[in-house]
Request: fold
Amino acid sequence: MATPRCRGDPAQRFAHRFLLTTACTCVVDVVALTTLLVAWPLFARRIHIPPSGHLWMAAQCCNYAAQIIMHRRGAPPTWRERCAMAVRLNSFGLFSNAGSIVAKLWLDQTPPVTGHFALARHALLMLFSSGAVTQLLLQAEVVRFSWALPVQLLVVINCVAFNPTMCSATALAHPAAQQPTHQLFQLLEMANFSLLPVAAHVQPAAECAAVLSYFQLSIGLVLPLLAHAKLESSLFQEHRRQRQQCDMPLESGIMPWLYGSPFSRRWVLTTCTSCVVDLVALVTLLAAWALFARRIHIPPSGHAWMAAQCGHIAVQVVMCRRGASPGWRELGAATFRLNSFGLGAANAITKLWLDQTACQTGRLALARHALLMLFSSGAGTLLLVQGKAMRLSLALAVQLFVVLKCMQFNVTTCSGAALSDALAQQQTQDLFDFLELASFSPIPVSAKIQPAAQCSAVLSYFQLSVGLVLPLLVQAALESFLFQEHQQQRRQRGMPPEGGCMQQLYDAFSSLAGELDRATLIVMLWLLLGLLWKVAVAIAFAQTGGSEAL
Reply:
């Protein structure tokens, strides 16, 4: 996919130009708002949403509506960026975990996945439960990488913290759900270069939490941040080149980490010129709200979190339309990422949904269970929130916080019926063994790992890889590319090249990317994923004490 041209003038700060380039539409906010409005009544019909859940949903709806209005009114890029940060931070109810609570309530009303493609369906269930998809979609709420990193990290940490509770939902904790969770855990273990299975020693709750954490870290944090870094770096390079061509002084010092620097402003202008991501996120959130409400009883905190996210997306759209300053838009994106799981609200909803979801059985049961765990981990949400662009320096910290927060709820998520069932535990163990085998572990240790630890490890792996590391790598690559363009534009104008800490980081990343061929890149990513799997297993063990020995 071609990198967008850096909009704005080289005399402007890169953050402003980045936001102008990446936030040119409010389609995402419209979609997110619509989705949230649809999902709200659906959840309310199925589960009892607590007052905090209703407040969260209302706040999110207001956020999305504000985003749309700001975009239509041409708000400054910084205003839209700050609103996008707020949407990300409130994606799951930053301080109330309302979104996670609603998900937990929905999982409690969901039977374990059985029948054809049980494993794949269970994997999708866990992916949904993890909130990684939501985090991934929230990445469309563009903020600079320096803001996107800490915001997304905060959101992911919040989701991870709720994983134990999420795994306790009926859909994940039922014996029929524990088997596919175990198979998914083994699959991830094999994909992590572990040569021999080790999942037999991991408790089902730990396996569930591990899978959720993996989805959150990989899909919700790393992958989106990697894409963000690539885009922002590219725009920064273009911004620097344009300033140099205009004989303008280059940005230097530690300011490139912040939106006040020329490149930072250009980055925000480049990535926050559209509110399409906000519209999509709003529609998705409204749709999910209605769907959850129909199937589970969403607690008030869950409704409040969803409402808050919808409201935040609306604010982001308004800021985008009104041409808000890059700094404000980046702040909004960071807030949106941090609240992507409502500090547990989304995880609770996922847990409730898993309790109402049956474990995966039938053909491709293991694959369906892996998808269920990926969904339950929240990695999709973590990946989605990467759409709310922020600078790499900020996105790293934010996304890490969010992933770690999500990991805290892995054990709860693994207790859901769809992940805690005996059949689901077996599937989780198979997945755990697979990931262990793929991670080049020479000696099998699965007989010492409890099922709960296996489930938690798989969730943590999804959260770390999909929700944290991979998105951050993508954002780093993108941001480095933009930085090179920024420097080239400065040179073309006869301006001195921009310096500072971020300039060295961008140059190093661009140089490394230019020296890697496709085969080497694949191998390095494989090794990185294997390392993330080991980290996820360690986290699961710490959360559940899920083995007698390693």
Remarks:
- Residues 18-544 form one domain.
- The chain has 27 helices and one strand.
